[in-house]
Amino acid sequence: MYEPNVVGDWHEYDEHAGLRVRVHRLEAAEPPRGRDDAAEGLTYFRVRVTVENRGERHLGIHLEDGQIDVRIGGDGEAAFIDWRNSQFIEGFDVYPLRRATAVLYAAGPEASLSQVDVQIQLRVEEEWADRRLWTGGLGLHDASVGAHAATLRDGLALQVSNFLREQAEEGTA
């Protein structure tokens, strides 16, 4: 079963040994070059996406507009992405034991920012990696979000355990 990452978690790519990515520092922040007129009345936030190479050879990385999707609120509506203020990774060679970070500025209604989903589809050496999802919320710290995710995982483990126990009891009768 596919389980989303929590903001702050690293995700390692099996198809590219040593390559890992994480979405982190989901925080309220004003854009450096001023607000976009289209974001009037919305609350700005910033997301950082870091790609790290722990492998033995350099890899060409692309993380540009269109490869990052941000959804907010319980209905998963698209956040406003401020492309002018955001910084992407465009054709950068990440050498072993090095990192590259993209900074994305987005905005949405303040009431919807308690749930933020960020989907990343990294392009490595002209090949598309699988899409991965990180979930978090504005105003939540990485540690508290991690504790919440652990509670969800424990709840799922309990459900699976109960299901297996019920199946075993049916089989022994």
Please provide a written account of the structure.
The protein is α+β, with helices and mostly antiparallel strands and 173 residues long. The chain has one helix spanning 142-172; strands at 5-6, 10-12, 19-28, 43-53, 59-63, 68-72, 77-78, 80-81, 89-94, 98-108, 116-120, 123-124, 127-128, 132-136. The chain contains one helix and 14 strands. The strands form three sheets. Strands 1-14-11-6-7 form a five-stranded mixed β-sheet. Strands 2-3-4-10-8 form a five-stranded antiparallel β-sheet, with no helix packed on it. A hairpin with a 2-residue loop joins strand 12 and strand 13 (127-128). It starts with a strand and ends with a helix.
Q: What is the share of helical residues?
A: 10-25%
Class by SSE composition:
alpha+beta
- With strands numbered from the N-terminus, the spatial order across the biggest sheet is 1-14-11-6-7
Question: In whole angstroms, how far apart are the ends?
Answer: 30 Å
The shape is flat
User: What Rg do the Cα atoms give?
Assistant: 19 Å
- Are there runs of 5+ residues with pLDDT below 50, and where? 141-145
Taken in chain order, the helices and strands follow as: EEEEEEEEEEEEEEH
Binned strand content: 35-45%
Give the tally of β-strands: 14
pLDDT averaged residue by residue: 87
> Major sheet, described briefly?
5 strands, mixed
Compact overview of the structure:
With 173 residues, the protein is of the alpha+beta class. It is 18% helix and 41% strand.
